[in-house]
Amino acid sequence: MDFFQNLMLGLNVALSLNNLFYCFLGVLIGTVVGVIPGLGVLAAISMLFPMTFGLEPTTALIMLAGIWYGTTYGGSTASILLNLPGTPANAITCLDGFAMAKQGRGAVALFMTTIASFFGATVGIILLTLFTPVIAEYALNFRSAEYFSLMLMGLVAASTISSGSAIRGFAMVILGILIGLVGMDSQTSTLRYTFGVLGLLEGVSLIALAMGVFGVAEIIMSVRRVRAADIDPETLKLRAIWPTRDDVNRSWFPMVRGSSIGSFFGTLPGTGPSIAAFLSYAIEKRISRSPKRFGNGAIEGIMAPEAANNAADQTAFIPTLSLGVPGSATMALMLGVLMIHGIAPGPSMITDQPELFWGLIMSFWIGNIFLLVLNIPLIGLWVRLLTIPYHILYPAVLVFICIGAYTSGFSELYVWMVFFFGVLGFLMRVLDFPGAPLLLGFVLGPLMEEHFRRAMLLSRGDFMTFFDRPISGAIMALTGLILVWGIWSGQTYKNKTAQNESSNDST
Amino acid sequence: MKNIITAFALSIGMMTSGLVQSAYPDGPVTIVVPYSPSGNTDVFVRHVAPYLEKIWGQTVVIDNKPGGGSMVGTAYVANAKPDGKTFLVTTSAFVTAPAVQLDLPFDSRKDLIPVANVGYVSYILVTNANSGFKNLQEFVAASKDSPKFAATAGLGTTTHFAIEQFAAASGAKVDVVHYKGGGPAVVSIMNGEADIYGSSVSSAGKNLKAGKIRPLAVLGDERIKALPEVPSTRELGYPSTEIKQWVGVFAPAGTDPAIIKKLNADINTVLRDEKLIAKLTPLDWTLEQSTPGGFAKQVDVELTKWKRLAAEKGIKK
Amino acid sequence: MEISLDRDRVGGLSLIALGVLATYVAITWYPLGTPQRMGPGMFPAGLGILLVFLGALQFLLTLGRPVSSFKIRVYSPLFILGGIAAFALMIVPFGLVPAIAGVIVVSSMAELRFRIFDITLLIVGLSLLAPFIFSFCLGLPIDLFSWPF
Hints:
The structure holds three protein chains of three kinds.
Chain A: H1 3-14, H2 17-35, H3 41-48, H4 57-82, H5 91-102, H6 106-139, H7 144-159, H8 166-180, E1 183-184, E2 191-192, H9 206-222, H10 245-266, H11 272-287, H12 300-315, H13 317-323, H14 329-340, H15 349-352, H16 354-385, H17 390-409, H18 412-430, H19 436-458, H20 465-468, H21 470-506
Antiparallel strand pairs in A: 1-2
Chain B: H1 2-22, E1 29-33, H2 40-56, E2 60-64, H3 71-78, E3 86-91, H4 93-100, E4 112-128, H5 136-145, E5 148-152, H6 158-170, E6 174-178, H7 182-190, E7 196-200, H8 201-209, E8 213-218, E9 244-252, H9 257-271, H10 274-280, E10 286-287, H11 292-313
Parallel strand pairs in B: 1-2, 1-3, 5-6, 5-7
Antiparallel strand pairs in B: 3-9, 4-7, 4-8, 4-9, 4-10
Chain C: E1 2-3, H1 7-29, H2 42-62, E2 70-71, H3 75-94, H4 96-108, H5 116-137
Antiparallel strand pairs in C: 1-2
Helix pairs in contact in C: 1-2, 3-4, 4-5
């Protein structure tokens, strides 16, 4: 069928009143879920899943998809304003986003991330529209060894993010992986590091970890130190969202780079938005002429990762729709919707069910436009939250964290997990260890181990398999480069500061 | 006058029977599926759930707890409160996994009560479309020269035992590679990472029809309706390879026996619904009626059988 | 509270301790397997060793540098974490509303001032808002009040 005919068909489907309504409902729910700390995407989609039974499969998918990419939009709000990542992919936005909020530029940050998200999603959608079958074929070339190398690269990049030493970052990555390994080993069913606590069977809760290490630790450090009176009322007017010319100039390329990285990672089932966000941040920092600004409110530090994670959200549909292989639990749920209605995704779905496929893609466009329109006016509302005196704000945030943790598993065990990770997060702050690499290590660790073991099995114990295979070898080489670069620039930074200090001393 | 009294009596009768019925369940029911969403079992449960919701007038919540070849979710239900509102729907992995996973945090016979056996699907041996094995015999011969990789959906799953049983019966030499579920296992066949896999029809899905993966045989004695042109392993000269994946419902130990009986009865009612049968047959499902006692006996027999096979053949972690 | 040890040294030692713990548990409790078929213990054991290595590296890099002492807050973590513990202890026996009150009261004490008006406002407000969002809107089954005796 002709390409434009397909687009028209899709628009026809997506613009039907019914589908528009459910699209809007989906993105609205997604945004709310993303903003409230402690509510996870998976929980939200699972709860609303039964609602989709009565709907047409296309409509059901449109709504669920809206929730899916809507949460990433909302998630950046909590990251920027409260240093609480709404989703793991937003964790990296906390770094510069929260710094910008503290400088009174929170509104700008929120506005620009919305734009970046839209940009990234658009790029992802275009790729989805044009290249789905091709990309799906290409993704099949990635096997266990390649996945391991990719994740290793992502983690090494993550360790070099913090402006401190790479040693600390890498150590946190490893600690994160170890925490991720807690629970039942899927390859052998051995319980690891659970020390008899049955509730840890499924492992540590991601929400508890993120809220403890980021949210609770942040509150502990901020109590009695933050004064609401410090916030300039000027920053609250609608005009305050407007970025400076400098901001805009600095944003273009990071958005483009972020979108490319995000689109790429989204297509590989299992890697996903988090690794894309982290990697694009690391790359921006490396190639920036003024890397010191990162971590202190550099606008590139939020534009690139936000573009990346939204692009990855969209391209994550590629393996799901064309191969029937879901890249994440959420994608698996969407797959479930299709299968209940008797539609098996696969190479022939595009030709068998053109209304579904193109209608869904067109609805992505519309959904993102809805999100743009929804989120911008809300910015003023969110930023006003910051004017609430801190001694009233923080107990409220704590209440939400506790309830969110409790409801994620209906057991007080999860609240204790937040407690435990709050202690850890606090100690990490005291000893100057960065939190974002910990989170990434936690998310990727178990997967990495699975791929490592499988790659070793398939190569019959040959460790060189990671270097012999062409794609994997290339990735490992890149990883080595990032590692060396990171150590070298870390050293240069130390030398420069040492020089500065010694020159100050001599005066 | 008579009519009014009759109508009155009837409505009282309906109300009281409604009252008795609404005694159970008195709140939302959670069905734990120890597999990822969109897998074979998960899709089955999601098809059946609305019918159960209609009978009970309560929401049925499906809780996916994948991992450990279904053992994570199973362990969860084994330790759950026996309030009659939490159940496990799992596959024959329930009887195969304990044969290899020896340090499970629960006892398969004591901590869970079998409620109903709902039906089964068959397995087909698939390989990559371009793999060069024109038929099953060629594969077996080639593997004797150099061992091939066999994918499974996880350690101790029925797919694992299916391929081990086949290897034992045919003399083929395979090294098993475990994946997390049927989806990734099928992908491994598509990209050639593994050479053979015992898949259910719904896992293989459209990829089979699209020609990306090729069926070599149906594991068992008979051909199946969903794929009539595929020969059975017995036809090709490999007997004793019969294996089916059944799906069963379990309750945590301590659940009220009256609730178990009612659950079994409700499930059997739902499984007789023509619309449901029509939807599931193309996915190669054969639905069955069962009793808790009969199912318990079957579970007991199979637990012993697979444990013996694992010990004999040295199948371990 | 001022700690007169070098921050990076303490950090390095902590890493070493964690690494030793991780590797010890992995080696003694879980089978290691072979490189081809790795057991559950091999990967974590390796990670633990890496952690020890990194900790040692961090520690060694501090030698030759003057000791930089660091400060550690005491009251904030005590009360904030105490508040979370209060919620964890109270939610199951006493229900959501008392647990909300618990976390608010205890964590507010981190301010080192007892603002009775603000605290009451928070308790009332959140006791209405939270059940509204979680129980009513999302339909999650949580007991608002319960009594364990």
